[in-house]
Amino acid sequence: MAFIAMDWDSGQIHTILDNRRTYKLLGFFNCYSYEERCKVEFLVMDMNAAYDSVVKKAFPKAQIVIDRSHIV
């Protein structure tokens, strides 16, 4: 499974990672400074429990929004 990061407003894809394991995602996001990661306000994601832990560690001020296609 892949991980896709995109800009919600523009729809532009920023990156596609070939792996969505927690350590890979944290390694990718930790390349950005803590200050930059604190500027992230919202993250839209599916209900994968691993994403929840990554978001809380990498983006401490972001609100999590569940992708509406994953809500039943």
From TrEMBL:
Task: Show which residues constitute the signal peptide.
Answer: none
> What is the name of the protein in this document?
Transposase
Q: Which Pfam families match?
A: DDE_Tnp_ISL3
**What does the record list as coiled-coil region(s)?**
none
Cross-referenced InterPro entries: Transpos_ISL3 (IPR047951), Transposase_DDE (IPR002560)
Residue span(s) of domain Transposase IS204/IS1001/IS1096/IS1165 DDE: 6-72
Any transmembrane segments, and where?
none
What is the species of this protein? Streptococcus danieliae
